[in-house]
Every structure is written in C-alpha cells, then in structure tokens.
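Give me the fold.
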Amino acid sequence: MSEGIALPPVARGTLLDDAARLARLEEALPQIRAAIAGETDAVALEATLARLLWETFVQASWCGFYRRVAESTLAVGPYQGTMGCLRIDFARGVCGACARTGTVQLVPDVDAFPGHIACDDRTRSELVLPVMSGGALRAVLDLDSPHRSGFSRAEADALQVLVQEAFGAADLVW
C-alpha cells in the first residue's frame, strides 16, 4: 500500500456534496484501517493518517495533527497542506477550543468563531477532533477547508470513531 489508498481521482480543492464526501470517506476507511493496523507508535499513526486523510478529504487545504507539548500548548505535528501555525495555546482558536474542552469542533464558518486563528487566510471552515489516550488529551486532528461548510457532522462522527480506534490502544507509544 505504498502508493496510499485507492479512491477515484478528484481535483484538490473540490467541494463534493455531503453524500459524495461521506461515500468517499466510507470507501477509504477500510483501507485506512488496514494501513494502520497494529501500529503502536503515535507519530507513525499521525503521519500515516495525515497522508491518507489528505487523499480522502479533497476539500481540505490542511490536514494534520497538533500535539500536546505542555499543560496548555499544542505544537504542529505531522500534516499535509499549507504552512500551519507552529504553536497554539488552548485559549485560542478552534484547535485550542477542542483541546480545552475535549470535544469535536465542527465550524462551518470560521469568521463566526470568536478568536479563530488564521494560520491560512483562505480557511473558511474547520473540523477539529480531540485525540485521547489513557484518559488524557494527547493531540488534536485538524482539517481546514477553503469552503464554507467544508465538513459535515457525519464526517466528524466517522472520524471520531477512527481516531478512537487508532489512538485508544493501551500500548500506544507517545
């Protein structure tokens, strides 16, 4: 599986309708699960997931992880896309809100989100999921899109299951 995953080609930046995006994700998930099966190194998982989710979410302009590096600080981890913020405080932005609350942040319009951090001025919507392991926040998975409503609740729910499966193992090495 060195080439990634097998999905129909779609141009980067295309915003498919909700049903087509969900169908694409559902087609990708078994392949993603197969690629990460048995992996216990968190960075290897993050790097692989960032790459494979980048292939899946063609509407994304950024897809990757911010790792918890201090009590209330995230630092950029493995990702695909444009330059990301290097550090994010839990008190700022969508990633910070996710880290602070431990809840999924589905933001259809970042301009309506108080304190949004514009790492990329083209970002219009964002989806951020907490990465928990051993009951503690270890990272967040962040997806940005240049389209408003670039992500759906169904996509968020499917990704939440995948993240829990990938990072919930007791023997994971951080």
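The chain has four helices and six strands.
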